[in-house]
Design brief:
The chain is α+β, with helices and mostly antiparallel strands and 318 residues long. The chain contains 10 helices and 12 strands. The radius of gyration is 20 Å and the shape is globular. The N and C termini lie far apart (43 Å). It comes from Phaedon cochleariae. GO terms for molecular function: ATP binding; protein serine/threonine kinase activity.
């Protein structure tokens, strides 16, 4: 699982020596480290000519397979062009990965830099004083996220799932417009599982690339003969909507208590605060989206329709 995300608030320390990097003929100066994960890091860089700042994602590749995974992320960034999905400014590889001779390569992705950081950062700041989001902002941001997800799910010729939707993978512009990022987990949405070996392989990939507290129940225990589809993302959207109301995924709370996230997810346990500024209809919408049985879980069009209906209903009441 790639837990990195482009977190702009949590600084991982200053880089004292100003490293310069040349990417496809453009020179960038590294300003500071923004975050890091197991095999990748994100740095704030500046174009030496234009002085414009970007986020540089470096992915360390220890094998040919690692290179293929990094190239897959680059390819998804290039072909998924939508206002609500992060833009790839440019990219390149340096070095050559060959595990036999202990060599490594690096993939470099130049991405837009969002000063506000992520939705996760935004909610963390609000949670300090229980400064709940305004209902109008909840509807607007959530529906914009849904439209970006719809673009993935409606993509032709084959539907695409993000597979790691979470608040830390949603950047916010200065106007609080959401931008989906971290496309390294993207995959064909519909997967036919034929046997225990297929099931274990997908389960292992999900454990590595899909954040546990936003992961759909069918990815915790993949059945030997089944079809997995884009509704894995719908579950994650339900966790995001819950977090927009109460600052964290319902299963972040389970994890922090030290209880089993696995059991809570597959049982469909959702606990809502007793004291809340939000209407019960919000909870009903979250329950609809967080349907344990993927066959009964709505597709993205129904999620958008139900959310718009609730927005219109509340607007008329007000």
């Amino acid at each position: 699982m790639n837990t990195l995300g482009l977190t702009m608030i949590l600084k991982m320390g200053c880089i004292c020596t100003r490293e310069s990097i040349n990417i496809n003929g453009t020179k960038y100066i590294v300003k500071e480290r923004l975050g890091e994960g197991g095999f990748s890091c994100v740095e704030l860089v500046e174009n030496t000519n234009t002085k414009k700042r970007y986020a540089l994602k470096r992915i360390t590749c220890h094998s040919i397979e690692d290179q293929k995974i990094a190239m897959q992320e680059i390819n998804y960034c290039k072909k998924l062009r939508h206002p609500g999905i992060i833009e790839l400014v440019e990219s390149t590889f340096k070095g050559s990965a060959d595990i036999v001779v202990q060599a490594t390569s690096e993939a470099f992705l130049i991405l837009p830099y969002y000063k506000r950081g992520t939705l996760h950062d935004y909610l963390t700041l609000k949670s300090f004083n229980k400064n709940y989001m305004d209902e109008k902002d909840v509807f607007r941001i959530f529906l914009d996220i849904c439209q970006a997800v719809k673009f993935l799910h409606d993509f032709t010729p084959d539907s695409i799932s993000h597979r790691d939707l979470k608040t830390a993978n949603v950047c916010l512009t200065d106007q609080l417009d959401p931008i989906l990022m971290d496309l390294g987990s993207c995959a064909p949405a519909r997967v036919q599982i034929c046997g225990a070996q297929d099931a274990q392989k997908l389960q292992d990939i999900a454990a590595e690339r899909s954040s546990m507290t936003y992961r759909a129940p069918e990815l915790f225990h993949v059945e030997s003969y089944c079809v997995i589809d884009q509704r894995t993302d719908i579950w994650s959207l339900g966790c995001i909507l819950y977090a927009m109301l109460y600052f964290k995924s319902p299963y972040d709370i389970v994890y922090e208590r030290g209880d089993s996230v696995n059991l809570a997810v597959i049982s469909g346990t959702i606990n809502f605060p007793q004291e809340t500024p939000f209407r019960e209809e919000f909870h009903d919408l979250i329950r609809l989206i967080l349907e344990v049985n993927p066959s009964n879980r709505p597709f993205i069009d129904e999620v958008i329709e139900k959310t718009e209906n609730l927005r219109n209903k509340i607007g008329n009441i007000v």
